[in-house]
Write a structure and sequence with these properties.
Layout: H1 4-11, E1 13-16, E2 21-25, E3 28-31, H2 37-46, E4 56-59, H3 76-92, E5 96-97, H4 107-114, E6 122-125, E7 139-142, H5 145-154, E8 156-160, E9 163-170, H6 179-190, E10 198-203, H7 205-208, H8 212-220, E11 229-231, H9 236-243, H10 252-262, E12 275-280, E13 287-289, E14 297-299, H11 311-314, E15 329-332, H12 334-337, H13 340-350, E16 360-363, H14 368-377, H15 379-385, E17 411-414, E18 429-432, H16 435-444, H17 450-453
Parallel strand pairs: 3-4, 3-6, 4-5, 6-7, 9-10, 9-12, 10-11, 15-16, 15-17, 17-18
Antiparallel strand pairs: 1-2, 2-8, 13-14
């Protein structure tokens, strides 16, 4: 009896090295402008080529601006890194989804929406949030620069087999409770190191009822509990999503042939996991973080715990609640919550209302496809009428590597995945929340749950 992780792992072993480590074949390699330059340089120094360039997918996302993308990038370092990626892709025969092209966007958004992330595969990228792709029933994980070079040269990587953990989430979620709230609750429950060394399989009816966008949010943040990655067994929701992606809707015969194998991708009924955790849906509310790590999530309105967790840096006080605290910035986007469903949820909340004057809001689609869908569905108009501006695709304010930086001391309610000190800009203060909660705070101008919001 095997878990899904064990089944996929065993199928991709090229050569066992010892009892723990094996050479693993990689089906898809995603790259961007930040973590690839050194790896390409290693290839040049050793006189090597990219072994299977057609299995490498490149885009620009981390360093790029989210306004005026048709103009040259102003920040010198960002300009250099983007130019380097362009040259490297040209030299090594890799197709680049560059600025202005149809499928440019955040690497963990464009892969799934193009249909390149498929069940049962192994996926790597020089980026920790590669775990996102596990939502499709894949083994997906981040790798270091030297490993990026190894995958370039051989389409393999050396890895030790992970331990397995099952997190079962069952029951009925409450009003306005979203997948982001679910995963923030999981991290708060087990801690930021609670899954270290494990690959997590998320199960239970709450997971099974989520859209693919929601599942990607959950798997994206599995890394924030210390896991090597997370995955969800593929099902009809997965298959329906893939069938409508750019690649598969034009290759339906191939899709049908693959489908029978994909349907077999699940843990055996009596498979033994190294660890199992059960969480009840009624334990989960609208969650916000109060500290400086993703494990500091509490229901909005709850008293801030007496444990530190970065409260002093956040300028909060123990024993108080966060409700009513003024908000300076709101950020909707990132590889966690920059998909079309996230923008739909945000727009549904702000429709017919007005953004608070004290709030600066950055609404950033995760890809050109999401941007175009927003325009097709009229989401851009809804946002504009409510006082918001739809920006251009990129990682934006998830991390301070582009112009979208939160100023020192300012408080940002963010739909991204990390709230470390200075993550969004030197001295900035970050609260992690769902798109629904972020929208409510943007309208109210302060921290609110749906209870306070509905009284506005």
């Amino acid at each position: 009896m095997k878990t899904l992780v064990q089944k996929i792992w065993d199928k991709h072993i090229v050569k066992p090295l010892d009892e723990k480590e094996s050479v693993i074949y990689i089906d898809r390699h995603y790259i961007h402008e930040v973590t690839s330059p050194q790896a390409f340089q290693l290839l040049r120094e050793k006189g090597l080529k990219v072994f299977r360039p057609e299995l490498t997918t490149a885009t620009v996302d981390h360093n790029i601006p989210t306004q005026n993308q048709e103009l040259p990038i102003e920040e010198k370092e960002s300009f250099i890194q983007v130019e380097q990626l362009r040259q490297n892709c040209k030299d090594f025969g890799i197709y680049l989804h560059d600025l202005g092209t149809q499928h440019q966007g955040i690497v963990h958004v464009i892969g799934p929406e193009m249909g390149l992330t498929i069940p049962g595969s192994t996926i790597v990228c020089g980026d920790s949030h590669t775990s996102t792709h596990g939502a499709f029933g894949t083994i997906a994980f981040g790798i270091g620069t030297s490993e990026v070079a190894t995958v370039f040269a051989s389409q393999t990587v050396i890895q030790s087999q992970p331990k397995t953990m099952k997190i079962d989430i069952s029951g009925k979620l409450g009003k306005f409770v979203s997948p982001k709230d679910v995963v923030l609750q999981v991290i708060a429950k087990i801690g930021t190191a609670g899954a270290t060394g494990y690959f997590i399989e998320f199960t239970g009816n709450v997971i099974q009822e989520m859209s693919m966008e929601g599942r990607m949010t959950v798997c994206n943040m599995s890394i924030e509990m210390g896991a090597r990655g997370g995955l969800i067994a593929p099902d009809e929701i997965t298959f329906d999503y893939l069938k409508n992606t750019h690649y598969w809707k034009n290759n339906l015969e191939e899709f049908s042939a693959k489908l029978e194998d994909w349907k077999l991708l699940k843990s055996d009924e009596n498979a033994v996991f190294d660890k199992t955790i059960e969480i009840k849906a009624d334990e989960i509310g609208q969650i916000m973080t109060y500290g400086t790590n993703p494990g500091t999530g509490i229901p909005i309105g709850s008293v801030i715990p007496t444990t530190d967790g970065g409260i002093e840096y956040m300028q909060f006080k123990k024993g108080e609640t966060m409700v009513g605290i003024p908000v300076d910035y709101v950020f909707l986007g990132s590889c966690t919550n920059g998909r079309i469903e996230d923008l739909r949820q945000f727009a549904e909340i702000v429709k017919g209302k007005k953004k608070a004057n004290n709030v600066t809001a950055w609404i950033v689609p995760g890809s050109k496809q999401v941007e175009e869908q927003c325009k097709t569905e009229g989401i851009d108009i809804v946002l504009k009428e409510a006082g918001f501006e739809l920006r251009q695709p990129g990682c934006s304010a998830c991390l301070a590597m582009n112009p979208d930086k939160v100023p020192s001391g300012k408080l940002c309610v963010s739909t991204s995945n990390r709230n470390f000190e200075g993550r969004q800009g030197k001295g900035s203060r970050t609260i992690l929340a769902s798109p629904i909660t972020a929208a409510m705070c943007a309208i109210a101008g302060e921290i609110v749950s749906h209870k306070e919001f509905e009284l506005l």
